[in-house]
Design goal:
This protein has 327 residues and is α/β, with parallel strands linked by helices. It has one domain: TIM Barrel. It contains ten helices and eleven strands.
Amino acid sequence: MVIGGVGLQMAGPPAPRALRQVAVPPAQPNETESQAALTQPQAAPQKPATPRPGRDTPGPIADPDPALLEPAPGFAPNQLPRIAADGRLPMQVYAAGFDSTSRRPRVGLVLAGLGLNQADSEAAVRGLPHGITLAISPYAQNPGRLLSTARSSEHEYLISIPMEPQGFPLNDPGKQALMTSLSLEQNRARLVWVMSRIQGYVGAIGAEGSQLGERFASLPEEMGLVLGELKKCGLLYVDPRPGSPPPALVWGRSVDVIVDEPPTAADVENKLAQLAQIARTKGSALGFAGTPRPVVLQRLATWAVNLQADGLALAPVSALVQPAAGQ
């Protein structure tokens, strides 16, 4: 016994028995919870917001920004508009200020033919309220001073794209016009030339003065080329043909009334009254005048002054355009 006791003492205490691991099954939802999960509507994936044109803040139009320009291939040192690396768009940066919270019916007007007659163009820029959008001819010679005055006067402006009109060749849109007889690549080269003539514009209009480019604009593939280039550059588009469908691919709209056809004082006044009535009925309206004739400028200035008293808001094109279908 003495010997056995000494042996046990030398061996030490017995090793503890290992605990057995018991797997715990995951909690199962009860029937009510399962039914609720099946009936819970799933949130639809959020589409990224489409960048809107326009600007809410008042003040002069920004000078052309190098971040929104790139070399025009084949026409150096001319430059084309582009979307900035930080996402800014020309149709935002160069837009005229407009209070987007205004609930008044909006009415706007595009005055084309700027840059061809220096005296009439200067009178339009200095004499018309800044809510009127200007369209600059690509055939304008040395338009730098005119554009600088337009920006300081808070006028946003478009580049006019000459296109083959009805009645060609009697109606001649100029040697750089987009034509139905040319290939897509030839028309693309002409479009690049047109778009690189000036800088700082929010978009384009398919008119050269009072010529509306009806023949070219009626061809879907050719117009797809134009609108695709405008979209790539972050620009909007105005179709000068009254009643035409809204432009595809880009922010834009078509004109409702041509106010200077014919360009007499009485007819201009009647057309402007029609434009205001459309705005009251539909919430917005856009007019078009092809040339800055003195009689047209006088009637436009008087009409614009009275708009607020008539319960309407004079709006630049950037505040009137709509997104393309599907955006």
